[in-house]
Amino acid sequence: MLRIGVAAGLAAAACDLVVLLLAAWQGWDLTVPGAPAVGPLGVVLVCVVVGVLAALGAYAAARVTKRPEIWVLTAGVGLWLASVQGLPRTLQVVHLIAAVWIVGWLARAVVRGSHVR
């Protein structure tokens, strides 16, 4: 599960970097009020860390519950909704891309039984 979480985090980071590059080129807002602009290294690190933590949570859900994919999806949507409050639209899209990659891959992994291997 950790390999899947890291791979999903890296895939999300790659897509997010493309969005950030496009946003910088178009001059879209990339700053949260009171914080510096979002940097590429921070995006990669956060995506990988979130992927690993989500993989640990998905593994726990797979071991404890009967329908782990529902718990993975519910937790992913809940955390995404909590994380986008007060962000500019561009950063909301970045969060959405990361959530879809990470939660989608982990939900698929628990459905296929990757936590058993």
Which helices and strands occur, and which strands form pairs?
Blueprint: H1 2-26, H2 40-64, H3 68-83, H4 89-112
Helix pairs in contact: 1-2, 1-4, 2-3, 2-4, 3-4
Describe the structure concisely for a colleague.
With 117 residues, the chain is mainly α. It contains four helices and no strands. The mean pLDDT is 89.
H/E element order = HHHH
- Fraction of helical residues: over 70%
Large-scale geometry: elongated
Count of DSSP H/I helices? 4
What does this structure look like?
- Helix content is 77%, strand content 0%.
- It has 117 residues and is an all-alpha fold.
- Helix 1 runs antiparallel to helix 4, helix 2 packs antiparallel against helix 3 and helix 2 runs parallel beside helix 4.
- The longest helix is centred in the N-terminal third of the chain and has 25 residues.
Features:
117 residues, mainly alpha, 0% strand
